[in-house]
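Regression test attached.
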Amino acid sequence: MKTSHIANDLNNWVEEIAALTKPDAVVWYEGDAGQREELTVQMVAEGKLIRLNPAKRPGSFLARSSPEDVARVEDRTFICSTDPADAGPTNNWRAPEDMRRTLDTAFEGSMKGRTMYVVPFALGVIDGPLTQVGVEITDSPYVVLSMGIMARLDVRIRSLIDQGCPWVACVHSVGYPLRDAAGKTRADVAWPSNETKYIAHFPEARQIWSFGSGYGGNALLAKKCFALRIASVMAREEGWLAEHMLLIRITSPEGRRFHVAGAFPSACGKTNLAMLQPTIPGWSIETIGDDIAWLKPGDDGRLWAINPEAGFFGVAPGTSSRTNPVAIETMKSNTIFTNVALDDDGDVWWEGLTDIPPQQLTDWQGHPWDPTSGKPAAHPNSRFTTPIDQCPTLADDIDRGVPIDAIIFGGRRATNVPLVAQARDWSHGVFMGATVSSEQTAAAEGTIGDLRRDPFAMLPFCGYNMADYWRHWLDIGTLLGPKAPAVFQVNWFRKGADDNYLWPGFGENARVLEWIVRRIQGIVSGLSSPLGTLPRTDDLDLNGLDVQAEDLTRLFDIDFGSWHDEARSISSFFDGFGTRLPTQLRDELLLLKRHISGSESIAHDLTSPM
Ligand code: OXD
Ligand code: MN
């Protein structure tokens, strides 16, 4: 068998992958609760899962990964398009034939001594307007259980495929066979993985091959690999958008509903925003999704969106009943925790969950935790994997999608970027998205604190040339015309001279969302600035909020000197895309440069609300 096989017939494909990887058994896993229970019992017996105290955390488990397999591996993530230019300068490209040869060798016998699971899944509800299906083959029971939470498993998917429904073939192996070619056996370990890792995408063949890692972002192939990288390619061809965006419904005190999609780089509080509890009276927020949105122009000319996922794979540290009570409620049961600490009551803990850690803790690697060691008890990228239907703020009536009123771009910026600004128009909005940048966190590699440009929060997730992706966004805007959503940029993370955050964040971010909604309605005016339309401070509801006047000023301050540097950095970032960069984005940059070098005042009143 060769990996170049284009998957058509599901059963043949399963046989071919089994012939390549040589598992001891092949098991179909289609969401049966009894089978799930059996698998957890087996994994507990094998030391691969720890059952948490059922009185405290029913139906929940802790998994501990090997210390080398704790995050996405961007330098081992490949886009294997025929033409390297189609992968573009922001992706690692490998020639498809080279990568297939490499994978043939890596996967040869990689499942010896193991069970190969076949997991058909849907992204979106079966029969939903934007739903796609796929099949993941994996030798990791942890992946099987997690896929059962994150995607929709259903026996009907197999028949859909048999009837000709297109599907994405996803092959995953932890790369730790229990028998080698000579027949020599070795014992299993709690978290098998391989030093060598490949997360390979074949956009033209619509295939994903992942080897060597069990970590969610590398191994739950429905998520980043399919729902973003492969789906972004499908979306461009088919006229829709696959985005790294949360989705929420905001209801105003008058009972009007607004739907907002938001792109934020990894670990910028996206899950918190998706589950935000407004502090301002009369407003409510319902959750639709916390990580990925698929959006498509509808028959009515508006942009409609779904969350293709069925669960949350959230970062645990920092999540508490103060920062995100909804997430805490959601993960009370039926949750798989990975790399968090364990208390002596059989429950979980992580930094930030409580101010004072419990007396006795076992750290994420299974050792007694010494609070004076300076090491965290939970890994900074430790996770909870939990079903979305346990979320108390989950919106109902969303299976057919929701019409999007606003798109928000955010990043983690200590300086320069104001608390909120509205794009002048769609092109300016695409420019805002294309220039999103964030200080690094633990979800990806890189030096923590470094600034990285993360256009549309899609830098590690766009399956094709980023410049073509921007063009696609511009084209979608042209198609939507006046029905296009309004576009905003936000930054909850701006700091003052004393290094403290200027804005309280969390539930108080509803005050910014309120302004956004009032802008959409056209009932508040703004101040035009080189960075877009800023709020007049009088229009922000700051009742009951302890923000000093000078901090408020700093939140919207535009330092022309820093913006000269920022424009230079954007310019060199854009240069990397050569002639594929859409001219509209070059024009936006020129406009920015002109605005910041002009003698105009920083902000001036807009006479009319819009
Ligand atoms: C995630 C990420 O895990 O964006 O959602 O890295
Ligand atoms: Mn994400």
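Expected vs. actual: identical. The CA atoms of residues 418 and 556 lie 5 Å apart.
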